Amino acid sequence: MSWVRPLAAGSGARYQQIATQIVTAVEDGVLRPGDRLPPQRELARALGVDLTTVTRAYSEVRQKGLLEAQGAGGTYVAYSGSDAGGAIDLGMNIPPLLNSAEFSHMLAQGSGATQAAASAMDLMSYHVGAGANRHRAAGAKWLQPMIGSTDIERIVVCPGAQTAIAALILARSLAGDAIACDELTYPGFLAAARVLQRSAVGVKSDEFGMDPVDLERVCKQHRPALLYLNPTIQNPTALTLSTERRTALLRVAAQFALPVIEDDPYWLLAERPPSTMFSLAANTSSTPVYYVSTLSKCIAPGLRTAYLVVPAGEPLSPVLDALRSLALMPTPWMTEMASTWIESGAAVQWLAQVKVELRHRQAIAAEILPGNIQADPHGLHLWLQLPRHIDFYRLTQTALQQGLSVTDSESFSTGSFSPVALRVSLGGALDRNRLTQGLTRLAELLKGDHARRVSSVV
Questions:
Q1: Fold held by 88-105+348-447
Q2: Alpha carbon of 227 to those of 64, 115, 174, 216, 316: distances in Å?
Q3: Which residues, at least 6 apart from 456, have a Cβ–Cβ distance to it below 8 Å?
Q4: What Gene3D superfamilies does the record point to (predicted)?
Q5: pLDDT, tens digit, for every residue of 194-225?
């Protein structure tokens, strides 16, 4: 207990002072990974406070990912959150808190419930097709806020959104076809289009998102087989299309009989999301919209569980054939666990915690980062527009040398447009302290000479 100091009057709430002492001791190396903290009652007696004050302090530090509670076994300094000198991930869009004790508890409970609910044969055998009715029903429950009540016969359980997108490209287009998309779009879609020998054709945007007038131009010029959209907290620009803009795009799609892939991983995170394009199209019968929603951005990427909704009147069999050729089936264990979390309400409760954490992280980023930021208050990422003198290559290489991963706009470009901007992801940092360190380091790089362009005179 060498790290323990007397509490000072007027220096903030007592539980916060205790939490600060623990964090400082971990950062200074006085407390090391695997060290056991004193029992809460013992620390309460030493500091002259009640037990609930210490309990609250320990809980506060656990939420930062620095402590792990092992029940009667005590509380220990965590290994995952204690490497203050390690790399900080600002490049991958993953939900925060995956290293927390709360998520570990949820994972343990979900694993137990999964094993109790299904036989070994169910969990380890082949399951080819659209998914078991129970799993499709869980999907319908998860999708209800986004698209309303859905016939489970229209839902296909997929091993991740990436597989669903690739399957739709295979099912609804041919090699050599064009697919219309934003000029800046999800790299996974670009990779799928490239590997499957489709051409991703960028549609220009204005301050409100994809421009319907330019979509009409692209349709006339390239005759695309599909339109791919990520309309809510768009990756990478973080723009959310208004209902009016969605409706206008659907009108153009209907004019050219253009099916739409609505890739919508962030709808449940958005502050005030408009109606999905799937719902708007269903109400107007304008054009088929295939809806894709994944648990990767709201719960955890490792679940590899996504739901694909095939619009009424469109056949399932081409999509199922394409899915089978790509991945055969989702992992039964993960699908069962996702269904268990949805049915029990654990998934919705965890989503609420993720949104609260992301609101804090977005506020931290807005305070630290320079420049023009575009973001949703609960988004996993933000779009940081930079001065034109920035040299992306120097910036990313210098950032990597300093333990930061960042993603520049070229990673999202169809080739026709690449602004000077970064997508900054906020969920990968282990806790808010590490995020603050990473963002501060990035801000210093942007203000210094590390990212300035170097001109060669020949």
A1: Aspartate Aminotransferase, domain 1 (3.90.1150)
A2: 41, 41, 14, 11, 19
A3: none
A4: Type I PLP-dependent aspartate aminotransferase-like (Major domain), Winged helix-like DNA-binding domain superfamily/Winged helix DNA-binding domain
A5: 999 999 999 999 999 999 999 999 999 999 99
